[in-house]
């Protein structure tokens, strides 16, 4: 069952729109193959097992997904309850519709939202929130777009978890082919991570959480943070 939360975000910067425009219906049909079987293991040197393990150990009964992609990871996650409540938040109606259809066997709510703005969901209303492969698509440095982590934290209950992943440009190993693809995607406006580095991500997590884990696999940073109970 899917419901839609009527909300129109404030006017959005064109670079933000460009970062999500590539995820149109035709592209979404191939996204899982291209990303989780292609670029992630081959170019970014991060196995899909890493993402699946993070979801399996982090997702809660009431979950907020920021930047929903295709819902690939959510469909492969074992939730702690049989009837989880999932909020899908994204600027792109195509990705919201695609993912909601894929998760039709769960109770989902679609919300059109910009992660750079306060989210149109009640404060402390979710057990977990994920920002998976989102931040490298958002313009600005991590010192600026790290506000998305704060907005995710605001939506999570005390004791809840915020987790995610992002492809970094610096502070992590990047293969020659990975650097070529990263630069190509930045030139096209699909990626906006040319200023993203590991230390800035660590600083953003420190600003928002006292307790967090940050690890790298290839060019990908994976993080999990716990909100104080």
TrEMBL record:
Alphabetical keyword list: Methyltransferase, Transferase
Annotated TM spans: none
Name assigned to this protein: Class I SAM-dependent methyltransferase
CDD domains from the UniProt entry: AdoMet_MTases
Pfam families, per the entry: Methyltransf_12
Stretch forming the signal peptide: none
InterPro entries according to UniProt: Methyltransf_12, MeTrfase_VrtF, SAM-dependent_MTases_sf
Presence of the UniProt keyword Glycoprotein in the record: no
Biological process annotations from GO: methylation
Protein's UniProt keywords contain Transferase: yes
